[in-house]
């Protein structure tokens, strides 16, 4: 059951979201007793869902349908399918309820379309306040601001010229920012494909984007990051790595998870290339990126291979951060796939013991590993 879509979705929920979904199920689907029992059973194994015996399909089936003489796969799969659909509906409802941008935007647009001008103008003020957050954390948040300012300028109605001028200026700024962030983000991907896969994307069109971006760099940390990463990939100059790392070390918590993940992948790839080319300093930068990635929770959401795990430990040991290596093993080790866990953890600990000059402990662990 561990690879079923429902459990994969549960794995990435926060504790608050898991609890909220449980309450939602009981409120909306309270008569679906078997489905509720299935949810109550599997949630006990959150967040790792690593108990292979108790999450074995046949074993779990017998818990829910003890009177069935044979396992009827479709019977349980249909229930899990319903739970998956209900979870998607809950997450959508959660995302569009309350004072979210999406809820405010659709409300404002509905009021305009119905001709309720006074209520619309009150609603657009609240929409703009939500969209104009102090720090945009994702490309989507820039698109939200553009949507809000576009709606306000073209549909506000009955406003004086001074106010319309301010709205026009805001709409133009939001358009520039969304354009610059979006183009630099895509240019990073194209530059990566040119380098890694020998593609031939023409990046000359980015020159005016870079010029326009400079005008707005002070307005956005995310724009600064994509500006630095784009130049890092295309020029390989350490200055741009330093700029990006400085922002991440101070402000990673202000960047949306999806954007942060994308940026870290680009930077880790650059660091790995530099290590392969013999750049000793790249070991420290690679380790710093591993620490940021771990602190941001990305490794908990990914299926980590044994090679990835030991590479991270090896980088920490190489730069002398053995205390962090132990911390990483303790926190990330239990999330490894059960089939990989024992050997991978022994190898990781052996790497640390080797650095600590403990040859007997190293040989003892290595002799227990099945290669």
Tally of strands: 0
Order of helices and strands: HHHHHHHHHHHHHHHHHHH
Q: Specify the structural class.
A: mainly alpha
- How widely separated are the two ends? 27 Å
Strand content: under 5%
Structure annotation, total helices? 19
Integer-rounded radius of gyration: 26 Å
Rough outline: flat
How helix-rich are the residues, as a percent range? over 70%
Tell me about this structure.
The protein contains 19 helices and no strands. It has 371 residues and is an all-alpha fold. The longest helix is centred in the middle third of the chain and has 36 residues. The radius of gyration is 26 Å and the shape is flat. 26% of the residues are buried.
Give the secondary structure arrangement, pairings included.
Layout (H helix, E strand, L loop, with lengths): L4 H7 L3 H14 L4 H10 L14 H8 L8 H24 L4 H13 L3 H15 L7 H17 L5 H36 L9 H11 L4 H15 L2 H14 L5 H20 L4 H15 L2 H4 L4 H13 L3 H11 L5 H18 L3 H10 L3
Helix pairs in contact: 2-5, 3-5, 6-7, 6-8, 7-8, 8-9, 9-10, 9-11, 11-12, 11-13, 13-14, 14-16, 16-17, 16-18, 17-18, 18-19
Quick structural summary:
74% of the residues lie in helices and 0% in strands. The protein is an all-alpha fold. α9 (161-196) packs parallel to α11 and α11 (221-235) packs parallel to α13.
């Amino acid at each position: 059951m561990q690879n079923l879509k429902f459990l994969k979705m549960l794995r990435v929920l926060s504790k608050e979201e898991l609890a909220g979904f449980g309450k939602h199920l009981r409120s909306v689907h309270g008569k679906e007793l078997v489905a509720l029992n299935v949810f109550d059973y599997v949630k006990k194994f959150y967040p790792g869902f690593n108990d292979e015996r108790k999450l074995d399909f046949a074993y779990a089936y017998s818990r829910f349908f003890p009177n069935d003489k044979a396992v009827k796969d479709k019977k349980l799969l249909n229930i899990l399918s319903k739970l998956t659909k209900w979870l998607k509906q809950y997450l959508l409802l959660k995302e569009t309820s309350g004072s979210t941008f999406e809820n405010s935007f659709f409300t404002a647009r509905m009021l305009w379309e119905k001709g309720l001008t006074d209520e619309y103008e009150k609603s657009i003020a609240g929409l703009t306040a939500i969209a104009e957050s102090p720090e945009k954390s994702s490309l989507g948040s820039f698109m939200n601001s553009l949507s809000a300012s576009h709606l306000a300028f073209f549909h506000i109605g009955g406003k004086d010229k001074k106010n319309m001028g301010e709205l026009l200026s805001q709409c133009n700024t939001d358009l520039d920012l969304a354009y610059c962030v979006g183009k630099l983000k895509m240019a990073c991907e194209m530059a990566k494909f040119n380098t890694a896969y020998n593609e031939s994307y023409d990046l000359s069109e980015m020159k005016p984007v870079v010029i326009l971006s400079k005008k707005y760099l002070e307005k956005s940390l995310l724009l600064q990051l994509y500006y630095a990463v784009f130049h890092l990939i295309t020029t390989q100059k350490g200055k741009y790595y330093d700029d990006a790392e400085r922002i991440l070390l101070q402000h990673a918590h202000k960047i949306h998870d999806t954007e942060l993940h994308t940026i870290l992948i680009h930077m880790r790839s650059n660091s790995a290339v530099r290590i392969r080319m013999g750049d000793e300093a790249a070991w420290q930068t690679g380790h710093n990126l591993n620490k940021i990635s771990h602190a941001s929770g990305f490794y908990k959401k990914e299926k980590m291979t044994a090679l990835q795990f030991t590479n991270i430990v090896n980088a920490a040991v190489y730069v002398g951060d053995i205390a962090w290596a132990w911390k990483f093993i303790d926190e990330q080790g239990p999330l490894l796939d059960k089939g990989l866990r024992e050997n991978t953890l022994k190898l990781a600990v052996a790497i640390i013991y080797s650095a600590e000059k403990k040859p007997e402990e190293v040989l003892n662990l290595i002799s227990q590993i099945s290669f």
